[in-house]
Design a protein that fits this description.
The structure is a single chain. The protein has 153 residues and is α+β, with helices and mostly antiparallel strands. The chain has one domain (2-152): HIT-like (HIT family, subunit A, 2-Layer Sandwich). 26% of the residues lie in helices and 24% in strands. The longest helix has 22 residues, at 71-92. It is globular.
Amino acid sequence: MLLLFKNKEGKNMEEYQKNCVFCNIGLHLIPSNIIYEDDEIVAFLDNAPATYGHTLVISKKHYDNFLSCPKEIMHKMMDLAQRIGQVSIKQLGAKGVNILTNCYEAAGQTISHFHIHVIPRYNSVEGFQITMKGDLLDLNLPAIAKAIKEDLK
């Protein structure tokens, strides 16, 4: 259920889900370690980090995921994720960074509120791993490309 609410500073929150943990963090109803905030987005350290400095960037308004978020907000969030990644390398000594988002449960999304993970990487045996095997060799790539390309027009 979407409700009209005001945060602790009295600002209207137009699209807020009462039971959404990220909406509640955006409203300052749940404590978090915020590293950046403006009127539209918030970045805070993940309470269950995969690595040292693991940060989440969220929209204050509720959007289910990357696919439903307006481009202006998504671009602002990605710009901030990039800056946090740069700072993670410079200030935290990370050797690299993963910047990712998941859309829907099948892709690993566990909280239905658009968020971007910024995961600093220090070595290959940390609590987070992405493996792309590339072993689907019998696919009809031209047919797949055609199906996607037609819907992008």
